Automatic annotation (TrEMBL):
Similarity remark: Belongs to the sestrin family.
GO biological process, one term: regulation of response to reactive oxygen species
MF annotations from Gene Ontology: L-leucine binding; oxidoreductase activity, acting on peroxide as acceptor
Catalytic activity: a hydroperoxide + L-cysteinyl-[protein] = S-hydroxy-L-cysteinyl-[protein] + an alcohol
Protein name: Sestrin-1
Keywords assigned: Cytoplasm, Oxidoreductase
Gene source species: Mesitornis unicolor
Cell location: Cytoplasm
Primary site of residence: cytoplasm
Taxonomic lineage of the native organism: Eukaryota, Metazoa, Chordata, Craniata, Vertebrata
GO annotations of cellular component type: cytoplasm; nucleus
Stored InterPro entries: AhpD-like, Sestrin
Pfam family, one: PA26
């Protein structure tokens, strides 16, 4: 009546992939979750949708919030506005407008210069110099060399210190992998963000044409649409779970009986690495970067490419020669105190997290499955564990699951609800969110390993 336009949310709940009634409802959470919500609200000034989905796994969320708070707000080598701007640069690489919008607000809140937001070319040269590293870390980290590090540390008045560079690298990898989580879980924009609301009144069929063109569909329409859930008989998907458990049992028995030779293990790694190139992420649909997000980075055409394509041979990264535990952790902790510890804890929680359940089954040891997922991601990045039999990956991860993993990790902006629905169809949403936590942390660690190895080589 007063002519005030009232926004209403476009989505239903914090995720487009998970029905709202199946997420944790604010107000019905337990004491631990409530404390986490309070921490998140205090740190961010809002209870964001990432938190509302991550809270399926409170132990992980606690570690995640602690790490993110430390990176963005506690004492460290970089000024606060630089930190948020680097977050914008990293999220923009994957066209993640959800994270870009959050950090644009934070950047302005801590006194950042609004002119920088008109495009990377308006930011200080020092930040522009970080563009190349951002690009390679996000899409092809195996190409990073000590020369790239040298360029950043040696460029006279715009040079980075080692401590600043470590802080920047951790921020870049944090936001690349958080973009993977955002797309992998179908996180909806908050009502006050771009794409999170409409001013149009609810129409007869509960959505208007502008919603459809923007990819926001009503609940009824998603269930009816051919690209929504894939209808599958419950017996068929129960069989999937049974078959997976049977394979785990057989693999365990084979392990106990005989161990493959080192040569055979190396061959299986190379085979899996080659095969991972033929897993096309997300039906390979192109997602055009919107001008709004793409202005925060250079070279918009640069994206993920498999490392062995076009006759390029990238040497295998052997964890025996450079690992997070023996090398990366101490380097980070030395140059940016406490961060190595926080990251290490977060990696461990994601990797070891288990409730000993699989779909409807209780008391299941899922360690074999978790390790297969983690090592498959590292394998896609050319990272090899000498003591792992890569033959297990093909046994445990079927093709639709591999497509989902590769898309979320390498080209997250192409993740669709159809892909989320098509893997592990009988599993709980909390289990699928758990998969995304593994993808996020394995990806982050892989990026860090390449960057930290290059920094170590530069230093020595």
């Amino acid at each position: 009546e007063l002519g005030v336009r009232i926004p209403r949310p476009l989505g239903h709940g914090p995720s487009r992939f998970i029905p709202e009634k199946e997420t944790v409802q604010v107000g019905s959470e337990d004491a631990m979750m409530h404390a986490l919500f309070a921490d998140s609200f205090a740190a961010l000034g809002r209870l964001d949708n990432v938190t509302l989905v991550m809270v399926f796994h409170p132990q992980y969320l606690e570690s995640f919030l602690k790490t993110q708070h430390y990176l963005l707000q506690m004492d460290g080598p970089l000024p606060l506005h630089y930190r948020h701007y680097i977050g914008i640069m990293a999220a923009a690489r994957h066209q993640c407008s959800y994270l870009v919008n959050l950090h644009v607000n934070d950047f302005l809140h801590v006194g950042g210069d609004p002119k920088w937001l008109n495009g990377l070319e308006n930011a200080p040269q020092k930040l522009q110099n970080l563009g190349e590293l951002n690009k390679m870390l996000a899409h092809r980290p195996w190409l990073i060399t000590k020369e790239h590090i040298e360029q950043l540390l040696k460029t006279e008045e715009n040079s980075w210190s080692l401590a600043e560079l470590i802080h920047a690298v951790v921020l870049l990898t944090h936001y690349h992998s958080l973009a993977s989580f955002t797309f992998g879980c179908g996180i909806s924009p908050e009502i006050d963000c771009e794409g999170g609301h409409t001013f149009r009144p609810p129409s007869v069929s509960n959505y208007c044409i502008c919603d459809i063109t923007n990819g926001y569909h009503s609940v009824e329409e998603i269930h009816a649409s051919p690209t929504g859930s894939i209808p599958v008989s419950s017996t068929e998907s129960v069989c999937e779970v049974e078959a997976l458990m049977e394979k785990m049992k057989q693999l365990q028995e084979c392990r106990d009986e005989e161990e493959a030779s080192q040569e055979e293990m190396a061959t299986r790694f190379e085979r899996e690495k080659r095969e991972s190139m033929f897993v096309c992420s997300s039906e390979d649909e192109e997602s055009a970067a919107t001008r709004d997000v793409s202005r925060h980075f250079e070279d918009t055409s640069y994206g993920y490419k498999d490392f062995s394509r076009h006759g390029m041979h990238v040497p295998t990264f052997r964890v025996q020669d450079y690992s997070w535990e023996d090398h990366g952790y101490s380097l980070v902790n030395r140059l940016y105190p406490d961060v190595g510890q926080l990251l290490d804890e977060k990696f461990h929680i994601a990797y070891n997290l288990t409730y000993n359940t699989m779909a409807m089954h209780k008391d299941v040891d899922t360690s074999m499955l978790r390790r297969a997922i983690w090592n498959y991601i590292h394998c896609m990045f050319g990272i090899r564990y000498d003591d792992y039999d890569y033959g297990e990956i093909n046994q445990l991860l079927d093709r639709s699951f591999k497509v989902y993993i590769k898309t979320v990790v390498c080209t997250p902006e192409k993740t669709t609800k159809r892909m989320y629905d098509s893997f592990w169809r009988q599993f709980e949403h909390s289990e699928k969110v758990h998969v995304n936590l593994l993808l996020v942390e394995a990806r982050m660690q892989a990026e860090l390993l390449y960057a930290l190895r290059a920094i170590t080589r530069y230093m020595t």
